[in-house]
Amino acid sequence: MKPDDPQDRSKGAMDPVRPDAQEALLRSLVERARGGDQAAFRELVVLHQDRAYGLALRITRSPADAEEVAQDAFVRAWLALARFRGESSFATWLHRIVARRSLDRLSELKARRGREVGVEEVAGLPDPVAAAPGAVPGDLTAASRGRRLERLVMKLPAAQRMAVTLYYYEDRSVEQAAAILEMPENTVKTHLARARAALRAAWQKEGL
């Protein structure tokens, strides 16, 4: 289940060359899988596993936990597929499962160890505080800024962290993030605004 390169998947394995053909293929695979076709579901797994793993990795910050979450999410998706009615895309529905399982995994780890998992070293991530005047010191490299920001993001409340992950790191729109998190768009916007303010304040507090 684990991709060969877990850090380079901002757009995933499904960047469409022909969106109409891609959508038709996905609809066909979903319908066949809903009818019990395991081969069709395996194709859906292949098409979505990179982004599912990438989302889980950005939330859990642990390759092992991300792999376990992604595998569990696909199992749950298979078991619940008969109830999938297509109100949202299959990818959005699947990512909602991944997001929930990732948060559950963090809660399990926090309860077990008394703290959340540490931050993996991840370079080259988008910086939502970079636009603020004086927010990024010139003597920090892009990699160190990314690691520093990742550490601060992990300290955000769960809802804010999820909103930031989906909007900035997964390039999801507010509408898509709201669908995955099952909350109103205005609530997502509020979480993003509060997260940006918290990140900016934390960044400045650490000594700009």
List the helices and strands and how they pair.
Layout: H1 19-34, H2 38-60, H3 63-80, H4 90-113, H5 142-154, H6 158-169, H7 174-181, H8 185-205
Structure description:
The protein is mainly α and 208 residues long. It folds into 2 domains: 1-118, Rna Polymerase Sigma Factor, Chain: A, CATH 1.10.1740; 123-208, Winged helix-like DNA-binding domain superfamily/Winged helix DNA-binding domain (Arc Repressor Mutant, subunit A). The protein has helices spanning 19-34, 38-60, 63-80, 90-113, 142-154, 158-169, 174-181, 185-205. It starts with 18 loop residues before the first helix and ends with a helix.
What can be said about this structure in brief?
The protein is mostly helical. The protein has helices at residues 19-34, 38-60, 63-80, 90-113, 142-154, 158-169, 174-181, 185-205. It has 2 domains: 1-118, RNA polymerase sigma factor, region 2, helix turn helix motif (Rna Polymerase Sigma Factor, Chain: A), CATH 1.10.1740.10; 123-208, Winged helix-like DNA-binding domain superfamily/Winged helix DNA-binding domain (Arc Repressor Mutant, subunit A), CATH 1.10.10.
Q: What kind of oligomer do you see? A: single chain
Going by CATH, the architecture of the largest domain would be Orthogonal Bundle
Distance between the termini: 41 Å
Q: What name is given to the CATH topology of the largest domain? A: Rna Polymerase Sigma Factor, Chain: A
CATH superfamily of the largest domain: RNA polymerase sigma factor, region 2, helix turn helix motif
The CATH C-level name of the largest domain is Mainly Alpha
Radius of gyration: 18 Å
The largest sheet, given as strand count, sense and whether it forms a barrel, is:
none
Give the overall form: elongated
Count up the helices: 8
Low-confidence stretches: 2-17, 114-139
How many structural domains?
A: 2
